[in-house]
Design goal:
There is one protein chain. This protein has helices at residues 18-28, 70-88, 103-112, 135-148, 160-170, 193-198, 219-228, 245-254, 269-273, 288-291, 296-303, 314-323, 334-346, 349-359, 365-377, and strands at residues 5-9, 33-39, 47-51, 54-59, 94-98, 118-123, 154-157, 176-177, 205-210, 234-240, 258-262, 278-281, 308-310, 326-328. It is α/β, with parallel strands linked by helices and 379 residues long. It folds into 2 domains: 5-181 and 365-377, Rossmann fold; 193-359, 3-Layer(aba) Sandwich (Rossmann fold), CATH 3.40.50.2000. It has an 8-stranded mixed sheet with strand order 3-4-2-1-5-6-7-8.
Length: 379
């Protein structure tokens, strides 16, 4: 068994998980042999080789076709659990567990190996404080996380507030902060993709929401705000996918300042983002996971060199106000957003863009990679 052999476990089909891919690529180019272990889906290869030290292994489940109700999802989970343990327990010495769902597998294999295997826990969210989580499930998950986390060798989180919460919740050393930033990219020229594809005039300011179109992200608030905005020179583009797409398309029929654009691949995302004038992140204060989040989307806006409007949530507010890269709404509702929009329109746009260009020098994957690699090398 090689001392640098890693499996990175995800409970998805690994087709659009940019954080896991960035981490795996960073480890691969630094002499770690990495296999991303994921779920097999129709049309996807079971085995893929990305480079000499990086591969993907998608495990085919006999139970995959079962309904998506909670009971059947549990059956699928245990089949995946069993296959991971059988296939990898004697072939690795580091298990990178992405999210709480993967952590029991890592801990179980570590116990089987009599503690010869290191478990890295990468909490992509505040796992037990997510939106719309029933109180019984929250207590259940926290009970298990408390007992499993003591078996970990390293813990990564995605915001400073979440790192502090884990420290306080479980009386552990503060986890390492590895922000979900994009890779550094120079922006040479301003793109006009949205103006050209959606026929938006040059004199109109484009406000962009990109990401999941689902409840809790402020979609309904933004739609309500733009239905009531009287300024004809301000428009919003929603770019993404999710259950609220139909609401956006319905609103588009009656309001000419609302546009929809289908989600694009990560390879061309920043070019599209750069074709907007401002980015929007309007998470609702519905859970601690939202309140403490530092979403990857805010760093994508910065990398694309556009200022932002954000809701009044702790981590995003601190970031925007510290570096003067946008506007924070006073209230997380449609009137609060409209007020923030009016305020940012009065600010020096060129100064905001210059500040964004400075902040992207700090908040990029190349900087976050150093933190992760230092943690790995200290194992």
């Amino acid at each position: 068994m090689q001392d640098n052999k890693v499996i990175s476990i995800v409970l998805n089909n690994f087709t659009n998980d940019t954080r896991v891919l960035k981490e795996a690529q960073s480890l691969s180019k630094n002499d770690f042999n990495v296999t991303v272990v994921a779920l097999q889906d129709e049309g996807l290869k079971e085995k893929e080789t990305l480079d000499d030290n990086l591969s993907i292994s998608r495990l085919k489940l006999k139970t995959r076709s079962l309904p998506k109700r909670r009971f059947f999802q549990l059956i699928k989970y245990f089949e995946f659990f069993y296959k991971v343990v059988v296939k990898y327990r004697n072939k690795i010495n580091i298990i990178h567990c992405n999210d709480l769902s993967a952590l029991p597998m890592g801990v179980f294999i570590k116990v089987l190996s009599k503690n010869r295997i290191y478990v890295v826990y990468d909490a992509h969210e505040y796992e037990t404080e997510r939106d719309a989580m029933p109180i019984w499930l929250k207590h259940f998950l926290k009970f298990f996380e408390r007992r499993l986390i003591k078996y970990t060798s390293k813990i990564f989180t995605v915001s400073d507030s979440i790192a502090n919460a884990y420290k306080n919740d479980y009386n552990i050393e503060k986890p390492a902060l590895v922000l979900n930033c994009p890779k550094y990219k120079e922006i040479k020229n301003k793109n006009n993709i949205f103006r050209e594809k959606l026929n938006i005039a040059e004199n109109k300011k484009i406000f962009l929401y990109q990401g999941g179109l689902k409840s809790g992200r402020g979609i309904e608030i933004l739609l309500d705000a733009f239905k009531n905005i009287k300024n004809e020179n301000i428009v919003i583009v929603f770019m993404g996918f999710g259950p609220l797409k139909k609401d956006i398309l319905e609103a588009r029929k009656e309001h000419q300042n609302i546009y929809f654009y289908d989600a694009v691949s990560p390879e061309i995302l920043l070019e599209h983002t750069n074709s907007a004038d401002y980015g929007i992140l309007f998470y609702e204060d519905t859970c601690l996971n939202h309140r403490y989040c530092s979403p990857n989307k805010i760093f994508e806006y910065f990398m694309a060199e556009i200022p932002v409007i954000v809701s009044n949530l702790y981590e995003m507010k601190r970031l925007v106000e510290t570096y003067n890269v946008g506007e924070v709404a006073v209230e997380n509702n449609s009137s609060g957003f409209i007020e923030a929009l009016e305020n940012i329109s009065l600010k020096d746009y060129d100064l905001l863009v210059e500040n964004v260009k400075k902040i992207k020098q700090k908040y990029n994957w190349e900087e976050q990679e150093r933190v992760m690699l230092d943690e790995y090398k200290s194992l």
